């Protein structure tokens, strides 16, 4: 099983953006091509912002997820926003399949209308089960770094280990929401299948 990793620290131990985000699979290199809007010294959340942008290129949503032909592809952040201006800068002016990208921020799950990718901040850990229950069966790709997120019904979890970021993906959760995750993304991540209750 291939595991996608991204280095966050150089020889000096200082965090920085690699000149390119190098996945383990050569054919998958285009997914995490270095975003030109990021500066040379990237933080962990600058790198994660690039990941969120790239996820939208490797997921298919049902037609009903877009109420109109001009509906933007929305990346949301629920709870405390760790990205600062980086997520907005990463997607500014970008389009995917002819749709512009837009970033929205939410304090509660009840505020979420149309949303395609939702980063659930670790500030929401105490409410995570309720949030995932409220989003169940909605075509929203859920992403977090909260421990156990993928086992609790989340779709993509960022795992940071030894200054590297790995992805853990729960394809069953995505399938239940009528989302199709590209095999290229699945091959570059650790695929998890939570135990049935």
Describe this structure in words.
- This protein is 19% helix and 22% strand.
- Strands 1, 3, 4, 5, 6, 7, 8, 9 and 11 form a nine-stranded mixed β-sheet that branches.
- The two termini are 26 Å apart.
- It has a single domain, classed as Rossmann fold, CATH 3.40.50.
- The model is unreliable at 1-41 (pLDDT under 50).
- The longest helix is centred in the N-terminal third of the chain and has 12 residues, at 44-55.
- With 197 residues, it is an alpha/beta fold.
- It has helices spanning 44-55, 86-91, 128-135, 171-176, 183-187, and strands at residues 6-7, 59-60, 73-78, 95-96, 99-106, 117-120, 141-144, 156-161, 164-169, 180-181, 190-191.
Distance between the termini: 26 Å
Write down how many β-strands occur, each being a DSSP E stretch of 2 or more residues.
11
Mean of pLDDT:
81
Largest sheet: 9 strands, mixed
What overall form do the CA principal axes indicate? globular
Enumerate the spans where pLDDT stays under 50 for 5 or more consecutive residues.
1-41
Count the DSSP helices.
5
**CATH fold-level name:** Rossmann fold
How many structural domains does the protein architecture include?
Answer: 1
The ordered string of helix (H) and strand (E) elements is EHEEHEEEHEEEHEHE
Strand content: 15-25%
